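Q: Here's a chain of 260 amino acids. Please give me its 3D structure as tokens.
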Amino acid sequence: LQVALRASLLSTLIPARVKLGFDRARALEGQWLFSNARIAPRAREHQLDAALGFAAACGVSDLTPRWDLTLPEGARRYAERLIPDGAPALVISPCSSVHERDWLPERYAAVADHAHERFGLRVILCGGRGAEERAMGDAIARAARAPLVDQIGKDTLPELIALLARARALLCPDSGPAHLATMVGTPVIGLHATSNPERSGAYFSRALAVNRFADAALNFRGKRVDELPWQDRIEEPGVMALISVADVTAKLDELLGSPA
């Protein structure tokens, strides 16, 4: 499932009779040279659907994605403390592994204010222990009027998953937490200008994605989306500024409807 050349080279050390790879068009970095079987060719599909092509080639007939997770009791208690029953929450995971994918802190703050003032949501910040995450969290807190629960750098992976499972929604850029939330059935408002949500967005929440990838393609590449390679990203400084606060609050309003 990994087309990187380093993975293909490592595969030569595995004495398997069948080495299943992507179809010729998608076998990038010479992967086709290292496999002797191919999945069915398809074009412009979500990464998860592409991965499920391997399951189909192995004879799996039910390709409905499902994740059955058993979380530790301590992780569940952590989440229950932060999101008690009857206290709906919006979790914001503001950072990704690539700085150019991150949105502006003052715009996150404006959405936090909207979520709290219009819907009474508790707003929780989460993220890793890095300096960039800490700086982003501090900047959001300075700009926000709403009270924020700052959990950046304070959780474990099971605790984060348990927290997402209790949240009403997650707001984040194209990053790992979007897919963790998908695993536990939490709606994701994904922020996409650097990437196409039809390829890499939260699988069950693509209708909630704020999609400015077409604008980014025109503004930063001078091309339409269908003229770009399917795997292309536009990770340029300033590209996420194409996403407005109104774009995001409209998706939150669409998800939550009229306030009680």
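Q: Can you summarize the key feature?
A: Strands lie at 20-21, 37-38, 89-92, 122-125, 148-150, 169-173, 188-192, 210-211.
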